[in-house]
Amino acid sequence: METLIVSGGEIDLAFLQNYLAKHQNQVIIAVDKGLEALHQLNILPHHIVGDLDSTDCSILKFYQNHPQITVHQYRPEKDFTDTDIALNLAISLQSSKITILGALGKRFDHALANIHILTNALNAGISCEILDPHNRIYLKNKDFILKKSKLYGRYISFIPLTSSVKHLSLTGFRYPLEDYELSIGKSLGVSNEVVENVANVTFLDGILIVVESKDCA
Predict the structure, then answer these.
(1) Which domains does the chain have, with CATH numbers?
(2) Residue 22, helix vs strand vs coil
(3) Which residues contact 18 (CB under 8 A, 6 or more apart)?
(4) C-alpha radius of gyration, the chain, whole number
(5) Cβ(200)–Cβ(155) below 8 Å
């Protein structure tokens, strides 16, 4: 079972609509203001999560009275962000894959926190990614391969989430690496490109933030 979380950051409605058309039969979790984007597309979520202080009252009332929707409402004064709560709900539902839309935007603090909370899914062994029209962001804590034909965009960046990622090697890339320690404060991993059909990423310790990006020009 795959789960889509629609959070309250910036959401491109055309992108959301296109995503929903290609990924049907998912469990949908609306996070606070993300509910308004779903409402504009006439989409019913299965769950609504958050303190709901940013959502239009008339829209919220419509969904709160719907028998097929479970509302998880919290006080604004809480120890976790709404997206964090939604992600943990998706994990508890035993999702096989979790995709988060609306996790990025003008609030950089929320965007940064949303990348960090991906560790919850990583520790649970669940594939989880943040998507917007230009980026796919996910975490890796072990070796993996990348197929050029499946990449989200031309560019791929590797940024350490932990203090360092040790013995990092990249093969099949425009800028290969061999047995390198990528530590916080180094930008060496930004803006690489896959040049072979299959590229390999290997490392022995640490967690990588992986960002696949399209050229925005």
Answers:
(1) 2-133 (3.40.50.10240), 140-213 (2.60.120.320)
(2) helix
(3) none
(4) 18
(5) no
CA 34 to chain centre: 14
Q: How far apart are CA 98 and CA 80, in angstroms?
A: 19
Name the residue among 203, 198, 4 with its Cα closest to residue 98: 4
What pTM value is reported for the model? 0.94
Contacts for 169 with CB less than 8 Å, ≥ 6 apart: 176, 177, 178, 179, 180, 200, 201, 202, 203
Triad 136, 15, 43: Cα angle to 5°: 115
Q: What tens digit of pLDDT does each residue of 16-74 get?
A: 999 999 999 999 999 988 999 999 999 999 999 987 777 777 888 888 888 889 988 88
